[in-house]
Design a protein that fits this description.
Blueprint (H helix, E strand, L loop, with lengths): L1 H16 L8 H18 L10 H4 L14 H13 L18 H7 L8
Helix pairs in contact: 1-2
């Protein structure tokens, strides 16, 4: 995770020191990036614990969630609601409905299993 912390520090330093990054030429960008990398590595202490938050480490600090996508807490509530529902079970052993007496209908009622086809 230290390499991600170094990347986050470089990204932060480039954003603060070079706000017009997109206007620079490729050679200028390479030279500036090399200088910033050397400076961050020179000052970086790998023995200390990483203080950078995880979203910054993985590059998601600026990202806004897309509308309509559930959060992890909402997904947990959704799954818990479905697991407690007696009609629709998402996991566990699925046995045929006791009212189905026909063998063919019991076979159709079984959940999909790759080995049965």
């Amino acid at each position: 995770m230290h390499h991600k912390d170094i990347k986050a520090q470089i990204r932060k330093q480039l954003k603060t020191q070079f706000p017009n990054w997109h206007r620079l030429t490729r050679k200028e960008k390479k030279e500036i990036a090399r200088q910033v990398l050397e400076q961050v590595i020179e000052n970086y202490d790998s023995s200390k614990e990483i203080a950078t938050p995880v979203p910054d480490l993985i590059g998601l600090s600026d990202q806004q969630p897309t509308e309509g996508i559930m959060t992890v807490d909402q997904m947990a509530e959704f799954v818990a609601g479905h697991q407690s529902n007696p009609l629709l079970r998402l996991y566990g052993k699925h046995s045929p409905h006791p009212a189905i007496k026909d063998i063919e209908l019991q076979y159709i009622d079984q959940p999909f299993q790759g080995s049965t086809l």
